[in-house]
Amino acid sequence: MALSGETLPSSSATMTSEQPKKLSGLSTERTLQVPAEGPASILAMDIAVPPTYYLQDTYPDYLFNLCNLNHKEALKAKFKFLCDKTGIRKRHMILTEEVLKANPEICTYMAPSLETRINMSVVEIPKLAQEAALKAIKIWGRPVSDITHLVFGTTSSLDMPGADLVLSKLLGLKPTIRRVMMYMGGCNGGAAVMRVAKDLAENNKGARVLAVCVESTILGYLAPNENEIDELVAAALTGDGGAALIVGSDPEQNERPLYEIKWAGETFLPNTEHAIVRRFTRAGLNSHLLKHVAGVIAANLPKFLTDVREVVGGPSWNEMFFALHTGGSALLNGVEASLNLTKDKMQATRNALSEYGNLQGASLLFALNEVRLRSEKLGSSTTGEGWDYGFLLGFGPGVTMEALYLKSCPR
């Protein structure tokens, strides 16, 4: 199995001086790119969610009342069964009852609503990103002007200029900020954002990368229907939220690293490209999932992580911490069983699933934030719940499995 993720060579590797050199003739200050000395680290992180949330045990009644579908008793019973099996306590959403009543086409099955959804998402996604970013920057403790790069990932918005430019203006980032916009990354999108941020930090001395992933149900919200069981599953799982992280190499004295990113890479499983599919229609972004996709991922994960360990080394699975995509209790149970993990290994991810639901690409970053918070709550010696090494894992279309191998830092 081929694995990617090695540090990229710098385009300026042949320079004789170790210090960056100023380029002349430019009105803004720039330097030639030289590599950093050490590995990339997560220097700060935080999350943001919309203020409105829905309790999972009352959500079926709310949704079927809102969509005028209470006469479909069998479908409602099926949806309630799915909601009860998710392991979710509550989910936050931008689409409040007030918003949906003002835009009834969104909760009318297959009604033309794509334009309404896009117009809403291009405003709301950057706003949620701004909130998460400001919280992370405050924890980081350095001025916004010190951010040199921005990587923004989302499957929940589509526009030009992109959400990266909008966020740059909202935060007051320099016009010379180097931006990467990543659309349609799916449920492994947050891992891909971090992989790119790692390479940028390690190949640009002094870089400080703002890495952001924000997801919402705006594009994919669909009224329940007997012919769209995949959408019914998505409606039982998905929520809204954004995560922001500051990534950089060679931490300065006033910076306190949370995790070193020792390795990042991905693989896709052959002949599984139809297992997770999302397509734009006039009614939004529709989802189609293979019924047993969670089992497929769980069955193939041990081989993937074993291959990774041949590259990076590392302890046994139960001597590590884990932060996973919060794809539902079936996925977490399957991974737990396939790796023979003790029950505590999934607790941080289960906490993220319970409180926020499936946040698509942002979900594994919410899980990592829970690892950080749980480490504080437990009084652990490291940011990895007392363990030195751990995995950040994303699973998405392809079927793609993405991993970041992390080293925790002393608390």
Automatic annotation (TrEMBL):
Return the similarity comment.
Answer: Belongs to the thiolase-like superfamily. Chalcone/stilbene synthases family.
Domain Chalcone/stilbene synthase N-terminal: residue ranges:
31-251
- Is the keyword Heme assigned to this protein? no
Q: Region (Disordered): which ranges?
A: 1-28
**Ranges of Polar residues compositional bias?**
7-18
What is the name of the protein in this document? Chalcone synthase
Q: Which SUPFAM superfamilies match?
A: Thiolase-like (SSF53901)
Q: Which CDD domains match?
A: CHS_like
Pfam families from the entry? Chal_sti_synt_C, Chal_sti_synt_N
Q: Does the record bear Acyltransferase in its keywords?
A: yes
Keywords of the record, alphabetical order, are: Acyltransferase, Transferase
**Where do the Chalcone/stilbene synthase C-terminal domain residues begin and end?**
260-409
